[in-house]
């Protein structure tokens, strides 16, 4: 499953011509009050786009809109060439198989083993764990360095291990897009760094486009200043003066709108008073 990665994906652009995976065009939605207004951005192959903003600004809602779980009141959402904003639910099922989702708090099934959790979407298709599925589970778990836990239950794992299992579940179908909803929320700094290293590994080695919601600025800047070195098998910081692109951009939401979109360097140079206070 994970054998087709280039030898050094992080040291070169992930694509010669940007392949658009997802696009929001002037998207607005309201419940009792407006939540998002005029949201426009796109995600290309190999890029991680980090969604930042205070609680209640609609970051997780953007992930739900991308999955077609909620329809916008206006605007267009295109995912992998399909307009999900007008797609019937039955057609969305097939599209969602091409998207991996890492939920808040992992959302593992307590009554299922690690293997059954990771293989859940594949078992839906076959009704059982076959030898092929078992091999794919072990490969996905090996990616997150938890192959030895396949026969354990979630209650036997630490919080950080459960998040890593959730990532294995999200990547087992080789998704073209990954959606991360606060993958480090509630974790200690050391465990959070382990999770971010896996996100960077997926970005640099397999060039999967990702939307990542986080409340931790440290996580966002770690992704923007590090790359995954395959020879060392770990995340390492960019050298001073390096021109290597890590294909990570930032989107900041405030008052229902996007108030900033750009690189870490552009963000640090931004003189907007709210953004300066947000970063401080």
Question: Key features?
Answer:
10 helices, 6-stranded mixed sheet, 280 residues, 4-stranded antiparallel sheet, alpha/beta, disordered N terminus
Helices and strands, in N-to-C order?
EEEHEEHEHHHHEHEHEEEEHH
**Total of helices:** 10
Q: What's the rounded overall pLDDT mean?
A: 90
Total number of strands: 12
Structural class: alpha/beta
Question: How would you describe the overall organization of this protein?
Answer:
With 280 residues, the protein is an alpha/beta fold. The chain is built from ten helices and twelve strands. It has helices at 59-67, 89-96, 114-118, 120-126, 131-143, 159-171, 189-206, 217-225, 264-269, 273-279, and strands at 20-30, 34-44, 48-53, 74-79, 82-83, 99-102, 177-181, 209-213, 226-229, 234-237, 248-254, 257-262. The strands form three sheets. A six-stranded mixed sheet has the order 6-7-8-3-11-12, sandwiched between helices. A hairpin with a 3-residue loop joins strand 1 and strand 2 (34-44). The model is unreliable at 1-16 (pLDDT under 50).
